[in-house]
Amino acid sequence: MLAKRKTSSDDGEATPTVPEWVTTLARRQFTDNDGEAIGVWFIASKRVENSDLVTQQNRLYLPTDSVAANLVGLLSLEERAMASLVGDTGQPSKRSRTEAEEDEMRKKQKTAGRAHGGLSVRVYARCGFVFYLWLTRWDGSGGTVIKGEELKLFRSFSALKKGDKIDVWAFRRGGELCFAIGRR
Description:
Elements: H1 20-28, E1 40-47, H2 50-53, E2 59-62, H3 64-71, H4 77-82, H5 99-107, E3 119-125, E4 130-137, E5 144-147, H6 151-158, E6 165-173, E7 176-183
Parallel strand pairs: 3-7
Antiparallel strand pairs: 1-6, 2-5, 3-4, 4-5, 6-7
């Protein structure tokens, strides 16, 4: 199965062939059409960093250039808005607050991180387990991340370690965006 890229430009990069584990995993989500072609899109390759493993941060960072080139085009306008991926995905998003909100923020002691929300996505580990997480862009850094409470479980079942090279693939299950993430 060949991977698809949702870009109009030819950047000269070869699109990787979809690994068998991704094809099998995507097909399992469509029990009635084993012989039918299933769209699977390559999103990114990355090396796992310490910050991806810190439980306090509870997020998996996606490379900004890959998000812009390979992911944004797969999303509807509504999905882009939910994931805060509207506009220039290479720049931090700007939230506008009223002066009263700014004053309130300065007075409050920060006890926990802001609830970023995001686009609900299913993330499949190479072992086949599914995790219900969120895709969003952070305001300050402009980085796109996959986050959520079940990310800790995903990291455990994936046995990710610093320095691991992982690939991120996407497919749709009944219209819902899904990711398959695993070591190369």
